[in-house]
Batch of 3 targets.
Target 1
Amino acid sequence: MTMVKQVSLGVVDDVRAGEFWRQALGHVRRPPRCEGDDWIVLEPPQGVPGVAIAMDVSESPAEEFPRIHFDLDAGERDLDEEVGRLVALGAQRVDGQHYPENPARPYVVLADPEGNQFCVEGRRAD
């Protein structure tokens, strides 16, 4: 069976994007595979499930309505607390005009410092 091994994310500033996603997800940078390998690839720590994310330098702008995006789960943390943490790392809230008003599980749409949109879902304390 085929499985997703890595997602390549188009970015202008791979260092900035790599640092945001490293802190956001708790991933670690993969060591270079060979001399001259300067790709920033982040992986979950050993024994932690998840998918690697590679920072693919691109000159194209982030899409206003992306065809693909990340869906993150806040886990045990309150949704609004997790959104606040991600905003403090450099994420920005995105106008949710094209998203349902009362989803089955609450979520917030954000964009990373490069403008790539992603969703964070979770529970709210109240």
Target 2
Amino acid sequence: MPKSVIIPPGTPTPIAPFVPGTLADGVVYVSGTLPFDAENNVVHVGDAAAQTRHVLETIKKVIETAGGSLSDVTFNSIFITDWANYAAVNQVYAEYFPGEKPARFCIQCGLVKPDALIEIASVAHIGKKGA
């Protein structure tokens, strides 16, 4: 099965050996996405809602680069550092996924950079359109 690496224009070099996304057989797999700027620094320190928005915008760019949209997302894995941020995360999340929601899970854990409050990985089924 052929696969295509998905790297939106302007994407910074990852801090580990991975790519932002991979398209295989009409499915986009988006790597765990943190609230990083172009230099891999955490943005919106202390603001879970703003970090969630930043992460979802980054995921949106990966999926759109592959030829899909957020409406194609079927599954999200959400990692948060503190349950106190759960409501703020959900409020922003609902803006990006109105109507029918993708399946998901959410767990509390430590993340690779202490100021990061959230990380999301996504799966989107875009069919045979794409990169």
Target 3
Amino acid sequence: MSNLSHAGQDMAGHPDVSEMRDRYARVMGGRDVALVDAPVFLVGLYCAISPWVVNFLGTQPRLSTHNLIMGIAIAVLGLGFTAMPERMYGLSWAICAMGIWMIISPWVVGTAPSLGVILNNVIIGALTLLLGLVCAAASMKSGKSGTRTTGRRAARVDRSARADRPA
């Protein structure tokens, strides 16, 4: 029977160590904002339907259209974080900017907004800004602010690790 015990053996000598590192990085990489995906999507969805929920569709037609478009854009960013997080890290600051814009939009886009409209957009904007800051902090913490490690760089790191090992 074969001895399958690997006790005392170092994985650094394994012939597929670089491939295993790459696979581990692909599987685990980019999921630092996993808990923010769904809330961003839900805030965007609520923003899109808020003119009907708060009932300012008739009094603020431009702001209603604005909220619909912004809500769809925020929801799409939330879906993007779910579908391809490693490519979406750079857009976490865009979510922050959209949150700030949602806070000031009742006065810029709307005409004499009521208290309900103002509160609606300020709460949506504050939540969007908060979630965007969480996304940005997670991307900065992991060092993935829009840049990815290329295969050549990973191979170069692997070769330098092998050079440091005793023979």
